[in-house]
Design a protein that fits this description.
With about 475 residues, the protein is α/β, with parallel strands linked by helices. It folds into two domains: about 10-105, Immunoglobulin-like (Sandwich); about 115-465, Alkaline phosphatase D (PhoD) (Purple Acid Phosphatase, chain A, domain 2). Helix content is about 15%, strand content about 25%. The protein contains eight helices and 19 strands. A hairpin with a 5-residue loop joins β5 and β6. α3 runs parallel beside α5. The two termini are about 35 Å apart.
Length: about 475
């Protein structure tokens, strides 16, 4: 289930011949899926009223990798729904399929507690121990030897953090990019439609993903590794092309109904509750070439997305405004990098211009916060302007590393202008939980950031107001 709003949700199901890998892939099959959603009581999962059920059908065809997808509209805000499926194969006989539950967003009139999870860096090859990974290259790019793969007896179930997230029961899950790694290992990286699809198949067939997505709806962004390759832009005569990259992201992720990429954008904003609005940004499709000299004409967001971001921020009356970016704006980052907003020679001009606009409009004093993926370590950093950024860090232990600190000559902040109030002391996978609590008993609404390791241990908690 994806892109849940107060009144709608996108639901998808891929029809497969097996529920496990066969020769490294999960073969699909043609058929039809009937989706039915209905409000339920949370405690018993019993439908409230048969007449409230909504049913839609969709074909599963090779063109869309056998993914049947529908969008339900006219749903009730702040309501828990059960989505049941029936599947018809080539014989036409209908059989019972999997089911999921989700909650629609409360919307702008409801002041209720909301918690969501933010993740990045779901590196399948590192977790499972692909021997083709270049250890020397890994050390150069990550400042750490290649960690050992996961060795637990539950390895075939997938990432331990997914089990933890299911137990935490957030209202929704945000994948900020690097959801799969087309270029890990570099040798034999995914360049074709078949190979790219295979990356998504091996990822999502892991049982813990299926268990999580049965109870937690999702929102998605992509970054470099699940677009083309490390630090990519839209230049370069190599595969996958930007056109193929965009086809696959729209195909695999539930941004909207199949074919809706002509009308919809991958940047969007959702009013979650009275106190919370989130912005999900697009960082690859509209960007200028990374090698272009930094200046007024260089952009990650593009003119239309930048204008939309400013317009929607200015019009929001939510207590807390959280901008979720695939890549960092504050950092610090590795000095060698040039593909994001905090990098020297990267896209700092756009970042500085946007921060200046926030100050000029007074929005910097209206609880605007940044959450980012991309970086393989967790941190809480405060820019000299006072704006704050929370990096969720890699989901997988084997993909985690220590970060660059302010003052490090090999960082993008050698002069230590950033105040970093938290960064991990030991490399660890995990995730970020963000919770909004409404005002109560004369106390103002609160915003809480909780950095967790993959088993749910709280490593750092920051609450606003403090």
């Amino acid at each position: 289930v994806g892109e849940v709003t107060p009144s709608s949700a996108v639901v998808q199901l891929r029809l497969c011949r097996t529920d496990h890998l066969v020769n490294g892939d999960v073969p699909g099959m043609e058929g039809e899926v009937e989706f039915t959603v209905q409000p339920i009581t949370v405690a018993s999962a019993v439908p409230l009223n048969p007449r409230t059920a909504k049913t839609r059908r969709a074909k599963a065809v090779e063109t869309y990798d056998y993914i049947a997808r529908v969008e339900f509209t006219g749903l009730r805000a702040g309501t828990t729904y059960l989505c049941r499926t029936r599947i018809a194969g080539r014989t036409g006989e209908w059989t019972r399929g999997p089911q999921a539950t989700f909650r629609t967003l409360p919307g702008p009139t409801q002041a209720v507690p909301v918690t969501f999870a933010v993740v990045t860096g779901m590196n399948y090859a590192k977790f499972h121990g692909d021997s083709r990974i270049d250890r020397k290259r890994h050390l150069e790019q990550n400042n750490i030897e290649l960690p050992a793969p996961y060795q637990g007896p539950d390895k075939e179930l997938g990432y331990p953090a997914l089990k933890t997230l299911r137990r935490e029961k957030p209202h929704f899950f945000i994948g900020t990019g690097d959801n799969v790694y087309y270029d890990t290992p570099v040798e034999g990286r995914a360049k074709t439609l078949k190979a790219m699809r295979r990356k998504w198949h091996e990822q999502f067939v892991q049982p813990r993903y299926r268990a999580l997505f049965e109870v937690v709806p999702t929102y998605w962004e992509v970054d470099d590794h699940d677009y083309r390759k490390d630090d990519c832009d839209n230049t370069g005569d190599y595969d996958p092309s930007p056109e193929l990259a965009q086809r696959v992201m729209w195909e695999q992720l539930p941004y909207g109904p199949h074919g809706s990429e002509k009308e919809r954008k991958t940047y969007r904003t959702y009013r979650v509750s009275r106190d919370l609005q989130i912005w999900l940004l697009e960082g690859r499709i509209y960007r200028s070439p990374n090698a272009m000299p930094d200046g007024p004409g260089k952009s990650i967001w593009g003119e239309k997305q930048r204008a939309w971001l400013q317009e929607t921020l200015r019009s929001s009356d939510a207590t807390f405004k959280i901008i979720i970016s695939p890549t960092p704006l504050i950092g610090p980052d590795d000095l060698r990098k040039t593909d994001n907003h905090c990098d020297i020679g990267g896209f700092r001009h756009e970042r500085d211009s946007f921060f200046r606009w926030l100050r000029e409009t007074g929005l910097d004093r209206q609880h605007v916060y940044f959450v980012c993926g991309d970086r393989h370590w967790q941190y809480h950093s405060i820019d000299p302007s006072g704006l704050q950024e929370f990096s969720c860090g890699a989901l997988v232990d084997a993909n985690a590393r220590l970060g660059r600190k302010p003052g490090d000559p090999k960082s993008t902040d050698p002069d230590a202008t950033i105040r970093q109030v938290y960064t991990q002391k030991t490399p660890s996978g995990g995730f970020l939980l963000v919770t909004v609590l409404p005002s109560a008993n004369g106390e103002p609404a609160k915003l809480r950031f909780e950095f967790c390791d993959e088993h749910g241990k709280r490593l750092y908690v920051h609450e606003i107001p403090e």
